[in-house]
Design goal:
Blueprint (H helix, E strand, L loop, with lengths): L10 E4 L5 H8 L4 E4 L11 H7 L4 E5 L10 H11 L2 E5 L7 E2 L2 E2 L6 E5 L12 E4 L3 H11 L21
Parallel strand pairs: 1-2, 1-3, 3-4, 4-7
Antiparallel strand pairs: 5-6, 7-8
The structure holds pyridoxal-5'-phosphate.
Length: about 160
């Protein structure tokens, strides 16, 4: 959230069927989590309801690939493009799962993984964030490294997530 510049006054649309960690990641950036309904067939985020919940404050959509099953990324990405929103995939339960030939977590702007002890790849505690925009990945590094960039400059205020990540 912080790496994407999401903060006070911003809204992030996500799923109510998830781990509290999804919601806390939005709240700790001081943004507002907005819960969209689920699709009755898949139990994943319902893209129609996501679109209904978009307001002028919406900055991002955070689909959760619950139980390793994919959210409807084709529709979610189309909605995000239409409304100029970022997409952060919560792929914490979806290590190596695929959707239309792509690994989950590689479709949106960022993909998040958990290696906490209940996960299919577990390290006790641990997390990873992936993306293919180098500038954005540098910002992720800076945020998780208490605001200090790879170049060793303290550029922002940030938590220290590096011990578990
Ligand atoms: C869907 C989902 N999102 C987020 C998290 C939070 O991950 P962590 O416990 O590594 O912070 C988990 C698991 O704990 C999860 O299952």
């Amino acid at each position: 959230m912080e790496a994407l510049g999401i903060g006070p006054g911003d809204e992030v649309i996500t799923s109510p069927f998830t781990d509290p960690g999804t919601i806390s990641s939005i709240l700790t950036s001081q943004a507002l989590p907005v819960l969209a309904d689920l699709d009755r067939e898949s139990f994943q985020l319902d893209p129609d309801d996501v679109e209904r919940k978009i307001t002028e404050n919406t900055r991002a959509i955070m689909p959760v690939h619950i139980w390793g099953q994919p959210a409807n990324m084709e529709r979610i990405m189309a909605i995000a493009r239409k409304h100029n929103l970022r997409v952060i995939e919560d792929a914490c339960q979806a290590h190596l799962s695929e959707y239309q030939g792509k690994k989950l977590g590689t479709i949106g702007d960022l993909g998040c993984f958990s290696f906490q002890s209940s996960k299919t790849i577990a390290s006790g505690e641990g997390e990873a964030i992936i993306g293919n925009n180098e500038e954005l990945m540098d910002k992720c590094y800076t945020v998780h490294n208490h605001g200090t960039s790879r170049k060793g400059r303290t550029e922002t205020i940030g938590p220290k997530y590096r011990s578990g990540g």
